[in-house]
Write a structure and sequence with these properties.
The complex is a heterodimer of chains A (183) and B (192). Chain A contains nine helices and one strand, in the order E-H-H-H-H-H-H-H-H-H. Chain A has 183 residues and is mostly helical. In chain B, helix 3 runs parallel beside helix 5 and helix 4 packs parallel to helix 6. Chain B starts with a helix and ends with a strand. The chains are: A mainly alpha (183), B mainly alpha (192).
């Protein structure tokens, strides 16, 4: 399974939106509303900020649509916009420089089974930067090199954050993890 | 043998964790805010969708020259500056070295721009964001009075310019490795 973002969008729809057709843009917005919101919520851990990132990312998308050349998947391009917006927020908080900042609580309103809520709670207890690295690596499939570029840090930063996050998650969520994986 | 066993266990753990995280449901905002976004986009002052970007290079160069000129003037004529309550210091050797480094990087970026090497969309986005951060740093430099603050900002500018040059010079997707690449190949589903 790949990223939730991995949705092929017809080039005709992108072209119409790039020419300012609002209904075409709305179609794209509806397709990616939840993936962008979820990514932002996982990275920032705050529902209001996730909503603002969704807004800002979509605004950026609309303004930059004319620059999309189609030599990479559209969804990957939009995802990078969303990640950059989230990272900008983390930087504004000064969290990228202080990775031990106390974590926010992640509250996803979507109903989910108990073991998933446990995992979400465990995830929310990681510091935002560590959680973001874990999410980008394990869920979005980013390489350590890509994470390092995104954060403006070294590859070893990405590797150490991932190891730290994995270890903490394992400690917080040791038993149910095995049940989920083999269920 | 033991190391091999531990490595295999670590790999299994990572796969289990990735599977568990990916199985988490998508979250949705409490309500859709598209209407607000649409209003913002259709306001008369909203920029057009396909407005070409990239005024950054020239703007950054002008800003850097301006700031360098201001700092240089302060170095040469410190008494001609208007009096303020803030302690204004002449740029230190370190700051001047950073300004020179920044100007060299401006030259390097101008050379890269002239070559018009095609880069992928991801790298283009990364470049655009770095350019935004450079623009922000330039604005801060215009407002700074103290040398220690200016030095920190010039250092940040040099760092951002280096990142911009390396991002622009290299093809991002060439460096995809162990965990990269595959996620950009296929989509989960198609919209027709």
């Amino acid at each position: 399974m790949t990223s939730h973002f991995a949705i092929d969008v017809p080039s005709s729809l992108i072209e119409r939106a790039a020419h300012g057709e609002m209904r075409a843009f709305e179609h794209i917005y509806r397709l990616f509303e939840r993936p962008v919101y979820t990514l932002a919520l996982r990275m920032l851990g705050d529902a209001d900020e996730a909503q603002e990132i969704l807004h800002d990312a979509m605004l950026q998308l609309f303004r930059k649509l004319g620059q999309f050349r189609g030599d990479a998947p559209f969804w990957g391009w939009l995802r990078q916009i969303a990640i950059n917006e989230a990272l900008m927020r983390l930087r504004r908080r000064g969290i990228v420089e202080t990775v031990d900042e106390m974590p926010e609580s992640v509250d996803c309103s979507t109903p989910s089974p108990e073991h998933q809520r446990d995992l979400e709670r465990a995830l929310s207890r990681l510091p935002p930067v560590t959680r973001s690295v874990v999410w980008l690596y394990h869920v979005e499939g980013y390489s350590h090199e890509e994470i390092a570029v995104s954060f403006g840090k070294s590859v070893s930063f990405s590797k150490s954050q991932l190891a730290r996050g994995t270890q903490k998650l394992r400690a917080l969520y040791a038993a149910p993890l095995v049940q989920v994986a083999y269920a | 043998m033991r190391d091999e066993y531990m490595l295999m266990n670590a790999d299994d753990d990572a796969h289990e964790l990735a599977a568990a995280l990916r199985s988490l449901p998508l979250c949705a905002p409490n309500r859709s805010h598209f209407a607000e976004l649409e209003r913002e986009l259709t306001m008369p002052s909203a920029p057009a969708a396909a407005t070409p970007r990239r005024v950054g290079g020239a703007w950054i160069a002008v800003a850097a020259t301006l700031v360098a000129a201001i700092l240089g003037a302060r170095l040469l004529h410190p008494r001609s500056l208007p009096h303020t309550d803030v302690v204004t210091a002449a740029p230190s050797t370190n700051t001047l070295a950073l300004i020179a480094q920044s100007q060299q990087l401006d030259g390097l970026l101008a050379t890269l721009d002239a070559r018009s090497v095609p880069i992928d969309a991801g790298a283009a986005m990364a470049c655009a964001e770095i350019e935004d951060l450079i623009g922000l740093t330039d604005l801060q430099l215009n407002a700074v009075d103290r040398d220690d603050e200016a030095q920190a900002l010039w250092s940040r500018r040099v760092d951002l310019m280096s990142r911009l040059a390396s991002t622009r010079a290299g093809n991002r997707y060439d460096s995809l490795s162990d965990n990269g690449g595959a996620h950009l190949q296929g989509a989960n589903y198609r919209v027709d």
